[in-house]
Amino acid sequence: LRNLPQGLAFSISYYSKHGGLQKMCLHSKIKQKTCYMLDSSRNTCMHRTAPPGSILPWRFFSCKEETELPSKMKQNTSIMTSELLYKNLLKSEQKNWNDISAKYKPMIKRIKKKLEALHKKCTFSLGSPRMKFGENVYFEENGCVFLSKAGDVDEGNADILFSTEDLGFSDAFIQRIRISPDQRYMSVSLKSENSEEATCVIVKLGNFPVVEKVIPSVFSFEWATNDVLYYTSQKNLKCQNVFMTTFTNQKHTKLVYTEQDARFFVDIYCTKDRRFLTINSNSKTTSEVWLVDCRDPLKLPALVQARTKGVLYHIEHRNDELYILTTYGEPAEYKLMKAPVSSSGMENWHLVYALEKKTKLVDLEMFSDHCVMFLKNAGHLYLNVISFVSHSVQSIKLPTWACDFELESHLESSASTCYFQLTSPVHPPKRFAYSFKENNLIEQAVQEVPITTNCHTTRLLAKSKDETLVPITVFHNTNSKELHRKPLLVHVYGAYGIDLKMSFKEEKLMLIEEGWILAYCHVRGGGELGLSWHKDGCQHNKLKGLHDLKACITLLHKLGFSQPNYTALAATSAGGVLAGALCNSDPELIRAMILQAPFVDVLNTMMKTHLPLTIEEQEEWGNPLADEKCMEYIKSYCPYQNIKPQCYPSVFITAYKNDQRIPLTGVLRYVQKLRRAALDYARSTSKKGNWIPRIILDVQANGGHCDSSWEDSLNE
Length: 716
Prior knowledge:
By secondary structure, the protein is of the alpha+beta class. Strand 30 (488-492), helix 4 and strand 31 form a beta-alpha-beta unit. The radius of gyration is 26 Å and the shape is globular.
């Protein structure tokens, strides 16, 4: 969003000659276009789901000159030559893509038409999430923030408070909204698809809403009081500073907290009862939380518990007690504990509830008298409702087709109902509610789109090399005959303790309708079976994830789900490590591989400590600079390092020009080396009718790291 402040030029003056911000009234109606989801709930997962950036731009290009040049001139000449080589290589790839994609125009036309029809059918009237404050309801649609009255059936009468188009942010979407307690101010973060950084716009509400302040490069923000806002700044994919800004008569901004450790990332959260703001500093394995008292927000933050290596914790508040979601104690899985606010140290933490073995905590929501835990166990989804009144726990098993949930925003802790949505790759989101009064689950029939009935869901367990059982979720059309002849698309991720994405996608439903089989391999390194599942597949255990993937594909074929010639493997981001490794070690298991913004050069990335995420990622991949054994271990599975002349499957890669995490140069290098290896093998064998795989790279001009709008993802 570096250029977005300039986009305000025609609507407001970003900075006047005296450094002040000119206010502007927002008063236009916007035609409905695309609906973006509003992020107004707590993000309990890791602060990001993507891997570190690949390699430094231009690094892999060399410049050999016959004439001796002064060192500085050599450096400049080398950079200039490298840039030229890079541009020529990119141009060549784009021409190659244009030539190849032209051959598929009839297929593209058919697929696009079908996906658009499915999108129209499945984008039903759930609407974007609503934020209820007393009698007022705030919601976002089509780049606008609206205000309506609770109970008003006709939302066409809603007032427009904010418009991205009016402010010159037409290429950005609304990422997050926060309303001040007295509803006098609204803060909105705007994010472009081409950047990781967001811009926060603060609007003073009233009959004529006006822009009060614009803050660039913001990650998270919360209102401490009616006129005090805390926010974190983001730079080079890092977030380490917390600021406080006031909107009283004496406006000022000051730095409140700075994180010194490069492994830690800072964000801000407001407890459900609005009693505290929490400043959360988290690495991949360790946490530290500071409390800002919302009754006295100018007071220095208070430490809950100093960081302890290997202990993660997050804070909620209820009735003068801190409720602590933490990995402290044995087993090292998440458990709910509590402690008095006045003595919050670890020695005073008392157990409230512990999860069962191999159970993944997906989300948690705190209410006045209840705590709702969203859990995943053996592929099935559950709700555990803890009553603080009766001191009981009720467990509700959710429908078997459900693979993922999305918690809706509950701004009032006194709410008597918890709302959420259930979905799967082939089932559009369906709304459910749990009533605390009735102690039952209610399906909200707000849309007419039926759940896909002709899709069968199967859950399998594959035995890995070390006898560990690895879960697989399989979807196929119930009408399909001779499954061994059907095409199979296998999905894998296996990193950062993050689950495979199992939310609804139109293209997955289309494949099912066309007879495909979809398989999701929940290998170690991911988080499907809890924190221990991740720990058993990171650093010196990374090869276990590869063994798991091989075992899953082998079992699928053995049970009659397709065969190697009809099998494709799909992965995004860090999932490219395991997919690329399998492509090197067992290419005969698959016929094609599809990678999106793939991380394929682990070794070179982890050797470059000046890259923004390398230090932070050492807890996932290890530190090859400090440990020679670690270097050799990474070298043993790194996709780029292990490319060799052999019969490879065909490969389709989507990369993004503006990807800050996986620079395009690293992907280009991988593609070039893979092509050479495949061609060398074909030449060396020279068998009649020898098959040469097609290795295709599609470079997207728009979109960031695996984060595209519906329109861009449709084109992909």
